[in-house]
Design a protein that fits this description.
globular, alpha/beta, Arc Repressor Mutant, subunit A, 6-stranded parallel beta sheet, transcription, 11 helices, disordered N terminus
Length: 241
């Protein structure tokens, strides 16, 4: 693999800062080797448990944290809650959950904890690198084999209020969307990529990215994963639709 052109990093061309959290030393070493050959990625620390991951996140301020789920002491899900700020610690970096276990309960818990991405460890090095870049850009990511099926299951498992937003708040936020932004939200909720949205609506990808960014801002959401959850929880799209 070769790194992208200069300027593809997190801010102003600087490398994407990544923290590795996994209780297996060999796994962390493998991730480090994969990531550090890329010109735009820098590994800034390693943690073998959730407590250490939280402490190192506060000390090193990474852009992305690669987080295992099952670790001694504080597990990866609680560490994710603390890192992303959903446990009252304030805003944090994007968290990419990496696990060997293809379990829906882990995915649901990770999304509720504020994770921006979820990948299985049987993926390729290229998929890992791309996932880091996607989260560093502020987008969300799910393993392709999980996206549509599991999001639908997740939507059925939660109540209609969802994500701490009242129905009135959600309706007001949705009413602020333009018709085009609403179309983009629907397509994103159905698992469409920016390229697929562009093809469906006859737009350029840059225009789609602008629409997605405006949707997230108006709805008060962090990334595309939260947009999908919001859309299902508040009836913008229906499971199986």
């Amino acid at each position: 693999m070769t790194g992208p052109a200069v300027g593809a990093g997190a801010e102003g061309g600087r490398p994407i800062r990544v923290l590795l959290a996994d209780d297996h030393h060999l796994v962390r070493t493998g991730f480090r080797v994969i990531l550090e050959v890329e010109d735009d990625i820098e590994v800034v620390g390693e943690a073998a448990d959730g407590d250490r991951a939280v402490a190192l996140t506060r000390a090193t301020r990474p852009d992305v944290v690669l987080m295992d789920v099952e670790m001694p002491g504080m597990d990866g899900l609680e560490a994710t809650r603390q890192i992303t700020g959903t446990a009252g610690a304030g805003p944090g970096p994007a968290v990419l959950i990496l696990t060997t276990f293809n379990r829906e309960d882990y995915l649901f818990a990770a999304l509720r904890a504020g994770a921006g991405g979820f990948l299985l460890k049987n993926g390729t090095p290229e998929e890992l690198v791309e996932a880091v870049r996607v989260l560093a850009r502020g987008d969300g990511l799910l393993a392709p084999e999980l996206t549509r099926t599991v999001i639908t299951a997740f939507a059925r498992s939660v109540g209609p209020a969802g994500a701490g937003r009242t129905g009135a708040d959600a309706r007001a936020a949705l009413a602020a969307l333009t018709p085009r932004e609403h179309e983009v939200l629907v397509l994103v909720a159905r698992g469409a990529s920016n390229a697929e949205v562009a093809g469906t609506l006859g737009l350029g990808e840059a225009t789609v990215k602008t629409h997605v960014s405006r949707v997230l801002t108006k709805l008060g959401l962090r990334d595309r994963v939260q947009a999908v959850i919001f859309a299902y929880e508040h009836g913008v799209v229906q499971p199986g639709g």
